[in-house]
Amino acid sequence: MKRRTPLMSVILLTLACGGAGDRTVIQNRGSDTLVNVAQAWAERYREIAPNVAVAVSGGGSGTGISSMINGTIDIANSSRAMRESEIASAREGGTDPIEHIVGYDALAIFLHPDNPLTEITLGQLRGIFGEDGTLESWSDVGVSVPGCQSDEIIRVSRQNNSGTYAYFREAVLGESEFKLGSRDMNGSSEVVELVEQTPCAIGYSGLAYATEHIAMPCVVVDGGACVTATVQTAVDGSYPIARPLFMYTAGTPEGAVGAYMDWILGPEGQCIISDMGYAPAVEVDCG
Amino acid sequence: MPADSGSIAKVDLDHRGRSWYVDKAVGGLVFVGGVSAIVFVMGIFVFISREGFGFVFGTLDIGEFLTSIEWRPTSENNPRYGALALIAGTAAVTGLAMLVAVPFSLGAAIFIAEFATGRTREGLKVLVELLAAIPSVVWGFIGLSIMSPLIIDTFDQPVGVGVLNSGVILGLMAAPIMTTIAEDALKAVPDSYREAAEAMGATRWQVVWQVVLPAGRNGLVAALLLGVGRGFGETMAVLMASGHAINIPTSPFDSVRALTATIAAELGDAPRGSEHYQALFTLGIFLFVITFLINLAADFAVRRGAPRG
Hints:
By secondary structure, chain A is an alpha/beta fold. Chain A contains eleven helices and twelve strands.
């Protein structure tokens, strides 16, 4: 029975595209950060509502949003909020995108375990990663890192179309840009891997990617307390670089899409996203 | 009678049997095969031009493209498309790769063509061709997992990926194909040249150095140019071993970013038809033109260099 699932979904899709059959297909596209979660949701939901098939694809937040503007999908996944201009052009095309926050992703700061730094301020992060930043060596930050003879801060960043990159720029650098010359990794796990091996390195990525071989300093918010990145601090908003993860529906969700969104924001859907290492959007007890 | 014999001959010539049709069909197939290369090259060129030319002649500031290192295609306020650092990265890696590949491939070619005999020679040729068949992602693995720790330990560097790592990897990748072409160039030097030199009392090394290498010079240049083309176009190994940092390299240990690696890393997420997407196609056009010119130069060198006599 299980083996026939891919074939069945192909048949379902064909039927739905032809407008025939009484099964509903929900088209869901966008963010690569969310794609694994969206797939897990879709797979689980098939067991709950066998007459609804959710077709999930990735392509990045921008792809999902432009498909929403073109009106070719039912739900867009995005790790950033839609811009005013994007919402306006969607409305021009007759689609009214409605925002739903389905979870949170805390961006943790990663250091080599030998790095003695235990707390870092947003100002220091700007100095290290920002275009006008002047912090180039670990002694500028006030620490000496064993195993890092050159004292140079090795910045580990993400490729420039990643939602993680865009969110870090917005939340930490504000109007400024990244300093050129960072090692731009193609995935969060590559960032963690390089920082693990490199005493001089500093990087950032989703909390879900942290391992036991990596150090995470707490982050000081403008003279306030130092907050450690955890699912809890991401949910209550005290961690300064936690981003909401969005799903946009075309108009107020009704029918099958509405039921699906309700299920995602209900206890079962929220426990799935929490199992994948992200913070749930609502408080749930997953046991 | 002349008329009768003429008509008989005509009937015989008009006889279209099975072999006639087979001949025509195979002729047609071979023609399609031969022309397909031209069709594909033209098709690819038309495709990348269609995606990129609107940008090249519209938004793009060619001066900025060639002189600025600011590659910030996803900036919200002020996207910038400076490819200088990417070009410099590709050039530095390719240059170092040639420094590694030329001695290896030239030495191997001279040994195979002039000194080795019998089974040694056949075995070496097979091994060199096998080396050329190693997938580039495997070379990338070697760069990450063997070269990188080696560079960190040997030179006491904080990071092991960069120009040196990817240059050495790329050099080893380019060496086999350069060896094969260089060997062909040396084999093409007529034996009469060698015999004449030996008759005048030259040693084997003198024959190679003063007669064979100068005579095969153009073929060797072609081998070098094809190696350079390979270096420019290689993606996967460079993506893995170069460090992928926008940076004009000032030392062999610096991390750089290659043109190809930038396209590979960013195209997947760039929304279709956006400026960023078109800018990546512009990098593609640039690469296409460069490798086309290099191949043309190599072809020219081979033609001009066909030894006489």
